[in-house]
Design brief:
Blueprint lengths: L1 H26 L4 H23 L16 E7 L2 E7 L4 E3 L3 H26 L6 H5 L3 H5 L1
Antiparallel strand pairs: 1-2, 2-3
C-alpha cells in the first residue's frame, strides 16, 4: 500500500505538471524539441536547486552533514545555497562551484526557451528558393 501511495504522489508531483506543460506547449504550436528542452532544464533546476539548498541539513544521518561538529546548518532557497554557521559567527558555503554552475545554466535555459519560442512565432518564415526566383513550382513545370 505504501508503494502505491508513493507512486501516486510521484505522478501527481512530477507527472501532472510535466504533461500539462507538454500539452500547453504543443497547443501553442511550440516545437517539440523546445518543450522537451524546457522540461528537462526545469527539472534539472528543481533537483539541483533543492540539493544545493538542503545539502547542509542533517537528514537520516546527522553525523554525515557537512556542519556536524563545526556549527549550525543554514539554508537559503534562492539563490540556493547551504552554509555552516561556525562558532565565530562566520557563514561558510558547503556547495562547490560546479553544482552552482549547473543550476544557473539550467535556470538560464528555462528562461531562454520561452523567449526563443516567442521569437520563433513572431518571425515570418524565411522565403524559400522559389520565392527568390520569382516563380513557383507550378509555373516552372508547365
Amino acid at each position: 500500500m505504501k508503494a502505491l501511495l508513493v507512486l501516486v504522489v510521484l505522478v501527481v508531483v512530477c507527472g501532472v505538471p510535466t504533461v500539462g506543460v507538454w500539452l500547453l506547449g504543443r497547443r501553442a504550436r511550440v516545437p517539440a524539441w523546445m518543450v522537451a528542452v524546457f522540461l528537462l532544464a526545469g527539472w534539472v533546476t528543481v533537483v539541483v536547486g533543492g540539493g544545493l539548498a538542503l545539502r547542509a541539513q542533517p537528514g537520516l544521518f546527522p553525523e554525515a552533514s557537512p556542519c556536524h561538529g563545526v556549527g549550525a546548518p543554514v539554508s537559503r532557497y534562492f539563490p540556493p545555497d547551504s552554509f555552516c554557521r561556525h562558532d565565530d559567527g562566520e557563514l561558510r558555503s558547503v556547495n562547490g562551484p560546479a553544482a552552482k554552475f549547473v543550476f544557473w545554466t539550467a535556470t538560464g535555459t528555462v528562461l531562454a526557451v520561452p523567449v526563443a519560442a516567442f521569437m520563433r512565432r513572431r518571425v515570418p518564415p524565411a522565403p524559400g528558393p522559389d520565392s527568390l526566383m520569382g516563380a513557383s513550382r507550378a509555373d516552372r513545370r508547365g
